[in-house]
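ok so dumb question maybe but i'm new to this and my supervisor (M.) told me to 'just get the structure for N-acyl-aliphatic-L-amino acid amidohydrolase' and walked off. so i did the thing. is this what she meant?? sequence i used:
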Amino acid sequence: MKKSSFQESINHLRAYLQINTAHPHPDYSSAISLLTNFASSVPNLKAQTLHFTPNKTKPLLLLTLPGSNSSLTSILLNSHIDSVPAETSKWSHPPFSAHYAPDGKIFARGAQDDKCIGIQYLEAIKNLATNQEHGFKPVRTVHVSFVPDEEVGGFDGMAKFVESNEFKELNVGFVLDEGQASPVEEYRVFYADRSPWHVVIKAVGEPGHGARMYDNSALENLMKSVEMISKFRESQFDMVKAGLAANSEVISVNPVYLKAGIASTEGFVMNMQPSEAEAGFDVRMPPTADPELVRRKISQEWAPAWRNMSYQITEKGPLRDYMGKPLLTHPDESNPWWSVLKQAIEAAGEKLNAKAEILGSTTDARFMRQMGIPAFGFSPMKNTPILLHDHDEFLVDTVFMEGIKVYESIIKSLSSYIGA
Ligand code: MET
Ligand SMILES: [Zn+2]
Ligand SMILES: [Zn+2]
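this is what came out, is it supposed to look like this??
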């Protein structure tokens, strides 16, 4: 077997990106076939497809490279197969064409989030396996998981996987999951995520003529809440603007939809005030935030029953681990995995941001941290604008190739570390 050439690696990435795994109808089976096929070209890499839903429509691919010492805990490299949707008409190139521009940019939904890392894991393992006779012998077993449904909360994917017997048998001791691009030369590592709540507030009120001024209309009630929420949002954002906290260290509350009005064939009826109105918010809380405080704010200020409001909170995953501690992995010398990871990145000739960060968004790593397993978020994309969930998401070919080298160093170091 030989190592993949530059062009072959790029072709692997582009072929994966060309499979439309965006919600609401991700093509998981084509993605799993492609990945399984690739994995079969790597010696000793075993593949199994697991199912945790009754109709088997959400497969999870687990690849395993056995280590020489099965009494040590294993390493898990995770990525998700699914993507958020793309507004095709707003893109410069069709989002599932993986357009390869002359300047090296590869445009595709998933180029950064996070199909790049899935292929990089495989390319790195393939390169290491090719060099086996020159010394690469994993001591710890290395697993690579490709999971479904991360972008919709992970409940039929990673959440079920970590609860399974199959997962327990893996005896995972350390996890690497996705991170986020770095606009500068230094790579970024994430030691925690923010936890999402989806909050819907509903108002009811007196209906009436569009020309009438009166108290307690549904939209007036909703707008009062929106004002209070905006004030809270501003108080959080002001701390960021004043340089007192990073974006990911405060509680974000962003409106994502508003729904009200009486529809007609002409659009909306303009001279009637509706009796119902609602709004949806994406709320993200850093690991140290007090969820009870937010809950109280919602029930007393944002959607008080006395203003004819009601609310629904959907918690998208855990906030604390099974010991009741915040979900975070210590990025310091108290955690030997931190040192191994840091040294491996530096050994590859790369620089790491001096401070590990909380990720502003959310990943499947929270389910593993909940089990008490240390997990860091890392996607080796340097000098790259942050374009996840945006139009024209792209990754530059050379950045992708450098990432493979970095993972080679990381996988080698993690799998041969015998201290923990
Ligand atoms: C709703 S769970 C999180 C899904 C996605 N990764 C996000 O951060 O938005
Ligand atoms: Zn992602
Ligand atoms: Zn995402």
